[in-house]
């Protein structure tokens, strides 16, 4: 069955959840400067395409974003610009070859505040889900620090556009940050969002059907463990 064109999964002038993965689960970052390089490329690409970035998390082998593009094609162009240039830079630094990112990226329009709430919390909680940190504030490569009012985020505030949903959380920055921390803590306490996890799994299954994941020479597959949220013990 033919794939749907990428633009069918994007919408203009509303937020879209975008996930870009390393080809064959390839690692995207080795050192802090790699993360900073991609952030800089994302900043350039979002400025060129006039895309607003509301949430983001740079993980070891994938990138989560919530992006509002001015046109349907702008989001694809933004991803293309930063992904291609970063891949070139990383391969040059590591004397590497081959594709760094998968050709297709996941995208889904966010139609309402409930979906926006779930997607934003899910993205900022990704480092906890992956077992990288216990406290989201300890992970510098996500927008959690910006949302929660924690100083010294590696994601510069100029790269972040607060979403309408986030702005509705309070009349002042401190009120919004406080309310966001309350929502985030409650989200972690209840074990995350099962619908968002199922959405991610469905995307993974779709890509597997297209043979995007290759076998290693020893016959095994490049799989990673599916880590689930566990509610905090009281």
Strand content: 5-15%
CATH topology group? Alpha-Beta Plaits
Which regions contain 5 or more consecutive residues with pLDDT less than 50?
1-5, 206-234
What is the CATH homology-level superfamily?
A: Transposase IS200-like
Polypeptide structure, described:
By secondary structure, the chain is an alpha+beta fold. It has one domain (11-209): 2-Layer Sandwich (Alpha-Beta Plaits). Helix content is 43%, strand content 10%. It is built from seven helices and four strands. It has helices spanning 32-49, 72-94, 113-129, 144-148, 164-167, 173-189, 194-209; strands spanning 16-21, 52-58, 62-68, 106-109. It has a four-stranded antiparallel sheet with strand order 2-3-1-4, with helices on both faces. Strand 2 (52-58) and strand 3 (62-68) form a beta hairpin. Helix 1 (32-49) packs antiparallel against helix 2. It is globular.
List the helices and strands and how they pair.
Blueprint: E1 16-21, H1 32-49, E2 52-58, E3 62-68, H2 72-94, E4 106-109, H3 113-129, H4 144-148, H5 164-167, H6 173-189, H7 194-209
Antiparallel strand pairs: 1-3, 1-4, 2-3
Task: Supply the key terms.
single chain; 234 residues; alpha+beta; Alpha-Beta Plaits; four-stranded antiparallel β-sheet; 7 helices; 4 strands; 43% helix; 10% strand; globular; disordered N terminus; disordered C terminus
Summary, kept brief:
Helices cover 43% and strands 10% of the residues.
